[in-house]
Automatic annotation (TrEMBL):
It comes from Polarella glacialis (Dinoflagellate). This is SAP domain-containing protein. Coiled coil: none annotated. SUPFAM superfamilies: SAP domain. Transmembrane segments: none annotated. Gene3D superfamilies: SAP domain. InterPro entries: SAP_dom (IPR003034), SAP_dom_sf (IPR036361).
Length: 164
């Protein structure tokens, strides 16, 4: 796992699409997989990955070179999301610059394990988006976010069991 930074050209920040959601989705690009360069493109609070998927598809524009045939993109798979059904997480791949780089862009649900790959600055952005305290070390920040997300998981499982 590589440390994710917010240095991507298109870094979107934390988007609070659904204010009551406790599900967080990340859009990340992995450039030249062997070098493990991860670029965090954005984070989205929402009950489904669909809006994060749209952002992931939009990020491909930053990789294209309008001066090259086909934008310099070849060996592409699922760039426009045609293979991604509603409610599923997007995954796309392309070789860029006539084979100079490979890029894989994906949407993933953020878990406790994922949080460890974020810099403290990103963790604080996540906490600020939910008006939670941003004090403490990295482990404390992760624990605070994790508790917030887990509280939502408990709410969803209780409401499902009542409806049966």
């Amino acid at each position: 796992m590589c440390e994710k930074t917010s240095k991507a050209q298109n870094y979107h920040g934390v988007d609070d699409i659904e204010p009551t959601s406790r599900r967080l989705w990340e859009v990340q690009s992995l450039v030249n997989a062997k070098k493990m360069k991860c670029e965090l493109e954005g984070l989205f609070w929402d009950n489904s990955p669909d809006k994060a998927n749209r952002h992931a598809i939009e990020t491909w524009g930053a990789w294209c070179d309008p001066m090259m045939p086909g934008g310099g993109v070849d060996n592409a798979d699922n760039l426009r999301g045609e293979k991604t059904r509603p409610g599923e997480c997007y995954k796309g791949f392309a070789c860029i610059g006539v084979g100079q780089a490979s890029v894989s862009t994906s949407v993933n649900r953020v878990t406790a394990g994922t949080l460890h790959s974020y810099t403290p600055m990103i963790l604080k952005q996540i906490l600020r988006s939910r008006k939670l305290a941003t004090t403490g070390g990295k482990d404390e920040l992760i624990q605070r976010i994790n508790l917030y997300m887990q509280a939502g998981a408990g709410l969803h499982s209780r409401s499902r069991s009542r409806s049966r």
